[in-house]
Amino acid sequence: MQYDPIKRVLGDAFNKTPFLRRVFYNLLDLLLLRTWHVHKELREWATNRRNKEQHILDAGSGFGQYTYYMSGISSKWSILAMDVKEEQISDSNCFIRAIGRHNVLFKIGDLVKYREQNRYDLILSVDVMEHILEDVEVFRNFHTSLRSGGMLLISTPSDQGGSDVHGEGEESFIEEHVRDGYNIKEIQDKLKLAGFRRVDARYSYGKPGQISWRLSMKYPMIMLNISKLFFLVLPFYYLITFPFSLVLNWMDVNQKHSSGTGLIVKAWK
Known about the structure:
about 20% strand, globular
């Protein structure tokens, strides 16, 4: 299934005013389980840093919702948000200027080529590495770009059913992925190969999360790929399924999983 065309339609629909874009971000925060996990890790990282100057790279910023979230935590944080998609960068810059957050810049860039020596305290990469073939090269760039003691936070599909692939011969639910998911040891080894001194990885999207993902993301995306007319049906669909997804998301974030279709990975320089 092609995911990017749906994302473009959603972006166009919610980009008309800053108010609508905030609504869009709030909906993503509630519906996307990965956001629950990432926000939890960011809040933990932010402890004792809210009133300190920090330099952050949002590596693969997409719609910009994570940059928006981080820039709201502290005005002292300087955030560079980078993505390869020109239209998303342009839209995000217009929005962030309209709401007066001057500690943020959105910029077009290629993570395979981008590195800044000892610049960042935090690098965030959410659902990006599954799109990049040259992953070790990007990890090396991240390592170079972090300051000593800096942290890399990654959210990505695992090989335990990530991208909705559960066996040989199955195709990824999202066609834009170059890999179906990481083995947990594989990504740890690649990060250590890139120079990181310590790597912690855990599963996300356990049993509760997998059910929530199907309800909140997979089935709606399938419907929208069949016909854009399903946009008219979505509010009624979510009216029924949304309460269940909220409970399942909370369960997933607050439980430890021996396996899962997602990975949350932290690495320190």
